[in-house]
Design a protein that fits this description.
Elements: E1 3-10, E2 13-17, H1 20-26, H2 30-38, E3 48-53, E4 61-67, H3 77-89, E5 100-102, E6 105-111, E7 117-120, E8 141-145, E9 148-156, E10 160-165, H4 172-184, E11 194-202, E12 205-212, E13 216-218, H5 222-234, E14 241-246, E15 249-255, E16 266-270, E17 273-280
Parallel strand pairs: 2-3, 4-5, 10-11, 12-14
Antiparallel strand pairs: 1-2, 1-17, 3-4, 5-6, 6-7, 7-16, 8-9, 9-10, 11-12, 12-13, 14-15, 15-16
Length: 283
C-alpha cells in the first residue's frame, strides 16, 4: 500500500501531514496510522500526524491531530504553523489569514511575508476545572516528585501545561527527562499534562525544555512556549513580548495580558519548513 505523505518541522518539532482524500482512499484508523507513520524506526518518524479536514463547515478548514502514540491532542502550536503553510501552499485555503477548527476551538494562523507563520492561540485558560487541574490554586502550586518539591503553574493553551521556573545552574533537559513523565501522569492532571522547565534569561528572553504529553521529549512545543510566557508575565518576571529559546530553535510569544487583564489572545510566531515529500509503503 502506497500513501503520499509530507513531512514538515517547526523548530525541530516534526509532523507527518496526510491529505484527507488520500487518507479516505485506504479506510484507515487515524490513531493506528499516526503510530505507524510517526514511528522513528519502522515509519517515517515524527512527533505527530496532521490530516486537514476540508469538509469542515464551521471554519475555513479543520484538522485532525494525533500524537505519535496515537492519542489525540487539542492543540499544537508548531503543528499549526506547519499545517497553515501546507494548506495555504496547496490552495486548500485561498487567503493568508484563515480560521481552523481544532479540539481547542477556532485557531487563526496568518502566513507572514517573511515566510514565518503567526498563530493567534486564543486566550490562556487559568481556571483549574477547565485546564483541567484538580487543586483549586493553579498558580505557584507545590508538587512533590521523588525527593524534590517543584513549584509550578498550571495553565491551558487548549491543552494542559505545568510550567516550572528553575535556577540558572539547572540542566533543563535532565530535569525534563527525569521528572517530566512523572509529572505528566500525576493525579492533579486527570487528562495528563505537558511539562515545561524554564530559565528566565532576561525580561525579554527565556529558555525551556518540554516533556510533551503523549510524545515525550520534543525539540519544541508552541503551546508550551505560550504557557511559559503567560506564567512568567503573571508572575511579574517577563515583558509582553518574549523570545523563547527551545532546543530546536526560537519563537516569539506576544501577550498583552497581566494579572488583571487575562482575557487577551496569545500570539505565537515562528518558522515552518518542509522536510520532504514521499510515498510510504507500509501503512
Amino acid at each position: 500500500m502506497e500513501i503520499k505523505v509530507t513531512k514538515m518541522q517547526g523548530c525541530g518539532n516534526d509532523f507527518v501531514i496526510l491529505d484527507y482524500e488520500e487518507f479516505l482512499k485506504f479506510n484507515l484508523s487515524m490513531s493506528d496510522t499516526a503510530k505507524a507513520l510517526c514511528d522513528r524506526h519502522f515509519g517515517i518518524g515524527a512527533d505527530g500526524l496532521i490530516i486537514p479536514d476540508t469538509l469542515e463547515e464551521s471554519a475555513d478548514i479543520g484538522w485532525y491531530f494525533y500524537n505519535s502514540d496515537g492519542s489525540t491532542a487539542q492543540m499544537c502550536g508548531n503543528g499549526m504553523r506547519c499545517f497553515a503553510k501546507y494548506v495555504f501552499d496547496r490552495g486548500l485555503v485561498q487567503k493568508n489569514e484563515f480560521s481552523v477548527k481544532t479540539l481547542a476551538g477556532i485557531i487563526s494562523p496568518k502566513i507572514l511575508e517573511n515566510g514565518e507563520v503567526q498563530v493567534n492561540m486564543s486566550k490562556p485558560v487559568l481556571k483549574s476545572e477547565l485546564i483541567p487541574f484538580i487543586p483549586h490554586d493553579n498558580m505557584n502550586y507545590k508538587m512533590a516528585v521523588k525527593n524534590i518539591v517543584f513549584e509550578g503553574n498550571a495553565i491551558s493553551m487548549g491543552n494542559p501545561h505545568f510550567v516550572i521556573f528553575v535556577s540558572p545552574e539547572e540542566d533543563l533537559m535532565k530535569l525534563a527527562k527525569e521528572y517530566g513523565p512523572l509529572i505528566e501522569t500525576s493525579a492533579e492532571f486527570p487528562e495528563k499534562t505537558n511539562v515545561e522547565f524554564v530559565k528566565i534569561l532576561s525580561p525579554d528572553k527565556i529558555r525551556l525544555c518540554v516533556w510533551e504529553r503523549g510524545c515525550g521529549i520534543t525539540l519544541a512545543c508552541g503551546t508550551g512556549a505560550c504557557a511559559s510566557v503567560v506564567a512568567g508575565i503573571l508572575k511579574g518576571c517577563l515583558n509582553n513580548s518574549v523570545e523563547v529559546e527551545l532546543p530546536g530553535g526560537k519563537v516569539r510569544i506576544d501577550w498583552e495580558g497581566n494579572k488583571i487583564r487575562t482575557a487577551k489572545d496569545v500570539f505565537l510566531t515562528g518558522p515552518a519548513d518542509y522536510v520532504f515529500e514521499a510515498e510510504f509503503l507500509n501503512v
